[in-house]
Structure formats: C-alpha cells, structure tokens
Design brief:
- By secondary structure, the protein is of the alpha+beta class.
- It has one domain.
- Helices cover about 20% and strands about 15% of the residues.
- The chain has a three-stranded mixed sheet with strand order 1-3-2.
- It comes from Bracon brevicornis.
- Pfam families: ATG7_N (PF16420).
- This is Ubiquitin-like modifier-activating enzyme Atg7 N-terminal domain-containing protein.
Length: about 60
Amino acid sequence: MAKEMVKFTKLRTSIDPNFWAKFAELKLDKYKLDEKVEISVWGSYSSDRTKRCPLLLDCTSFN
C-alpha cells in the first residue's frame, strides 16, 4: 500500500460585497439586531489549486 502525504494549506476566502449587504438586511430587518439569533451561512469551496481564493461567500450564502 502506497503512503499518501496529507497536506494542509491556509484557508483563503473571497467575500463578495453583496454578502455584507444581505447580512445587514437580515440583521436589521428580519432579526431586529437580536444577538441571540444564529445565522447559518453556506459557501462554496474548490480544491482547485489554480483558484486564488477557493472559499467564496456571496448573497446566496444565506439561502
């Protein structure tokens, strides 16, 4: 059985400005600044080494 080397790298992210606009909308309009509310966030990740920022967050991250 061949040995496989496990490699780790820093997680690089790209956060689209629309992410923050949607977050502010949810925080102000829907949750009324309630700090006890947990907001789930979804992102897309690519293990492709040619991608500069493999983790992307945008306004669809809250769907």
